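Continuing the batch. This is chain 6 of the set; chains 1 through 5 are on the previous pages. Same settings as before, nothing changed between runs. Recording input and output for traceability.
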Amino acid sequence: MSLQNKVVLITGGATGIGADAALAFRAAGANIVLNGRREALLAETAARIDPSGQHVACVAGDIGHAETSRRMVATAEERFGGVDVLFNNAGIFSPKSFLDHTEQDLEGYLNLLRGYFFASQAAITSMRKRGGGSIVNVGSMWALHAIAATPCSGSSTAKGGVHALTKNLAIEFAPENIRVNAIAPAVVETPLFDNLLSAEQLATFNAFHPLGRNGQTRDITAAVLFLADNDSAGWITGVVLPVDGGVTAGRN
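Output for chain 6:
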């Protein structure tokens, strides 16, 4: 793999998909900069990734603030020499009827979109110095394929923006060897659902996916590492890849 000694920034890196991806990137030989809102939880995850602390750094803060992204990149440059990969992973999700959405609900989703925007801006500035890089964004299956049983117009509005950002950045920065792709997951069993569904309720979504099971963090991590790695995906950019157990393939 071409991830050996690469410098990887991960937003929403303390738990779930972000933490799993961080472990996998480190196993592939990368140096990691983790972002999340909860400093103590970030430190716990960092200690699991690399107890020595030599190959991981933490930057706590709201990714919706451009200053947080600038601190992430500054930390990457100071600790590890630059930025090669950005995994825009931070997320929230709460299915809700359109008419029940509040101004606060929508602002939460748009704050994350701002985070993806400004994290990409800061990372690309650093990637240019290294002759290229890779960004992987987390989009959403729901932004591609609306589901009546799980209305989520607020989230999908923002994730649709992530998909559009992905394609625009892919075209703008292709001449500089900076690839930008996204994944669009369906139901993945992560702490994101802890406050929404019981384990039994979450299990009922297995049948929603044509492949017969909910996604696991390892499913997402495999796709993220594939897209981030120039050896495996060096001729892929501007793609929004469904990682959804077959949901968007057709009616099930």
